[in-house]
Amino acid sequence: MNKKEQYIPALHFHWLTPLYDPLLKWGMREDVFKRRLIDRAGIRPGDRVLDLGCGTGTLTLMIQRAQPGAKLVGLDGDPQVLAIAQEKARRAGMQITWDEGLADRLPYPAGSFDRVVSSLVIHHLAPEAKRRAMQEVLRVLRPGGTFHILDFGQPHGLMMRLASLLVSRFEPVRENLDGKLIAILEEADFNSVSESERFATIVGPLSLYRAAKPG
Fold first, then answer.
1. Is the CATH number 3.40.50.150 carried by domain 3-212?
2. For every residue of 64-105, which 3-state class applies, written as one string?
3. What are the sequence ranges of the domains in the chain?
4. CA–CA separation, 172 vs 167, rounded Å?
5. pTM score, two decimals?
């Protein structure tokens, strides 16, 4: 399967990309859940951090502001959103590396990163690509490094079940909604895998996950 067949833009269609930032900011409490992701990641000065599926770079820049001593790399498969991210970083005066690439074929040597973070990306991946991506993240993490995911999770309560029906019509999100992400991470040989926090949004339930590479 070629790159074009594998890649799904942030809002499923390229023509919706300009709506991505406003949707997350105003419709999904982006600042709240991304700040929680950053807090949970525990990034330290000197850490090398990969934002997997960085999109327009909002999370990447938030991490750089929160921990200026970290070395940030943003990776995405969509050159359109990478161009937006690069412009954001330029205006903010931040030196961040932006790479084009896919989650299941990371263009980095083994043991390149102390932390990998990912926000609203994993649910885009088909089941086979999702499992390859987990293996790739494990490969590029240093021993003892951690993977922090914010993505759709298992719905709890009637409202979140109803909201999940909408997103499931447009995304390969079923494994997330069925609560299988922890098992998929464990199958990839991560340890200390946990779901640490949940959020209710207008498009369904989000969860924070943490997984560690054995040290």
1. yes
2. HHHCCCCEEEEEECCHHHHHHHHHHHHHHCCCCEEEECECCE
3. 3-212
4. 9
5. 0.83
